[in-house]
Amino acid sequence: MQYKSSPSDAQPWPVTIAWLTIAFICYAFPWSAFAALPSSQGDAPVLRIQGSNTIGAHLLPELVKGLLVSEGYSNVSVQPGQAENEQRIIGRTGDGKEAIVDLAAHGSSTGFVALKGNTAELAAASRPIKDAEVAGLSASGNLRSAKAEQVIGIDGLAIIVSPANALDELTTDDLARVFSGEVKTWEELGGRGGAIHLYARDDNSGTFDTFKELVLASHGKALASGVQRFESSDQLSTEVSKDPQGIGFVGLSSIQKSKALRIADGDSQAMPPSTTLIATEDYPLSRRLFLYMKPEEPNRWARALLQFAQGDKGQALVSASGFVGQRVQAVKMAPRASMPEGYQALARDAERLSVNFRFREGSATLDNKAQRDIDRLLAYLQQNGKMNKQAVLVGFGDPKQDPARAELLSKLRAMAVRRELAKDGVMFREISGMGDALPVAANSDNDGRVKNRRVEVWVY
What we know:
By secondary structure, the protein is of the alpha/beta class.
């Protein structure tokens, strides 16, 4: 937050001290606690949010209710909106004030349309903003800036089948051939059951955009015709769970009674959509959950919701809603023979933290999520007494013609993270680079190579 100085250098000392006091209070405490947010006037909402059904069905209502309670609206109710997948959340105070928030969850693309048309202050998206959407909103500022683009949680795109299906794992190549219609029976995948029945989200869905990008387009495929399409992930999951021949894809919170398969991509091991593997974004079909706003958005409720979502209470609600929060935790990993020797030693003697640092495409600059994760990691190290040579940074990358260059580049990524944390006094036990070892995605396409360029954190 920026504060204007006193209008004149000639102001008396008491006035100057008053300005400094106000500045300190606003800096030290959330601004929303310093000045009450405006209440609704009549039936008008204080905040309008549109976009992803994945985020809007469960998570966003919980975040909005949490914010309302934190702002003193003790009586909070949820009412159906004007159409399916729309909600109106109303908070009331003891003295009769109301705050109304309207949510519409019709798919990620609809959120950016609403931002452009000024019919929403926040856009919820279960995939990153596209180049065309950035261009369409350019008059409102850079929607890829750290102020505009905020990751509020991580989700895993679960590939689901009926519990009656004996199959346990597939590769992304298998998935592409199945959903493009090239593979038509379960027997072709080594299973049983005859014809495969395909279930997919609709074209407005960020879930479908993510599946299309990570599975279909990356393998040069398109979705087969005749697929059953759904606006709701929950409804899709319900139908798959009842169909022994069915297969579909949903967000992590919508697995419900279906069975989630283990997935491998390229040379990666087959991984389940587990909390740890999704938190580190190692799981091949992990994805980020975003809230976007115009960089200079004047709506104070929009800014307050983003602030609440990034805090501890908001991240706890992310986890409670079936997604993966971004709070840093230590996890014990089992060593495997396929790991490099130095990495096996880490797995035996140290614990891995549930955060990976990644970079802007084609750059050594930390991406927007990584910039916020620096603060989260620093808080973890301070709170757990691990500031002085008890943490290790391990860099990874994609293959290069010269293996030594791949190793050097991976170490330089780790050193970029060290530079940021060294500013606050963190001293590391070791900084290493492991080149193209232990890929978490295929190196055959650019998205996979970007995902493999990462930095892990381990602590003793």
